Amino acid sequence: MSSERRKKSIVFAITLIILILFMVPFYMLVVNSFKSTADFIRNPFALPGYLSFENFVTAIDRMNFFKSLANTAFITVTAVVINMILSSMTGYLFARKKWRINKIIFMAFLASMVAPFQVYMIPLVRIYAGILGFSNNLLMVAYVAVGLNIPFAVFLYSGFVEGIPRELDEAALIDGCSFTKTFFNIIMPLLKPIIITVTVFVAMGVWNDFLMSSLFLTKTDTKTLAISIKTFLTNHSAEYAPMMAGLLLSVLPVLIFYLIGQKYIIEGVIAGSVKG
Q1: 44 and 32 Cβ atoms separated by less than 8 Å
Q2: CB 265 within 8 A of CB 200
Q3: 275, pLDDT greater than 50
Q4: Computed over its alpha carbons, how large is the radius of gyration of the chain?
Q5: What's the rounded mean pLDDT across residues 93-119?
Q6: Which of 16, 160, 167, 259 has its CA 20 to 30 A from that of 187?
Q7: At a CB cut-off of 8 Å and minimum separation 6, what does 157 contact?
Q8: What's the pTM value of the predicted model, to 2 decimals?
Q9: Of the candidates 265, 125, 118, 117, the residue with the CA atom closest to the CA atom of residue 204
Q10: Phi then psi for 114, rounded to 5 degrees?
């Protein structure tokens, strides 16, 4: 076996092992959705003896699934749309206008990406839920989600715009386009790969968020899917099988969305993180 072929075989073997490790949790989620809790505890890796959809019926009922789904979708779509507009415009401004204040703000954005949410979790809850009284408000959760995701999005948009020739801006300026009109008419259509990439990342993060949402949303009619899953966990027992069914129902929409946009993700991340 040649050296080159041996290297490819090793890379393939390592990739296959990593794939299996990542797929095992999803496999357990799927197979245990069709088993009873007793069977799950007995052997979580075994295939179900027969297919039963009772767990899904229980999950939909106990989780108030469709209401939770609507809440999650509202927060996610709102956060994604606002984030896309604000971050793409800010990234374009940072890439084209090399003002000193822009550099300072951009560095502040990068620094904020390092700090975990737990650092400013208490001040956020104290100000917005406590002082301002915005607890159990879906718009407030979307607002906070936008703020948490803007630094990462601006970083990618700014890097992507750096790879777009400035001659396009100059030509638009000669034709009488303003800075804003140039962005929306010329630049934004070129941002499709990075828009899809950022949208996928932000949507997945907001959709699956538990900690931040649980701090603001406590009423039954405002809970998201991630919070509703906790219905199956009590101080004295845990209904694992229905919980697995609920988790599977919760991740399917965002999984489908990810699969649709996956071909743009690598292209967008590479182009957005490496300035041209």
Answers
A1: yes
A2: yes
A3: no
A4: 23
A5: 86
A6: 259
A7: 87, 88, 90, 91, 92, 95, 191, 194, 198, 272
A8: 0.85
A9: 265
A10: -80, -35
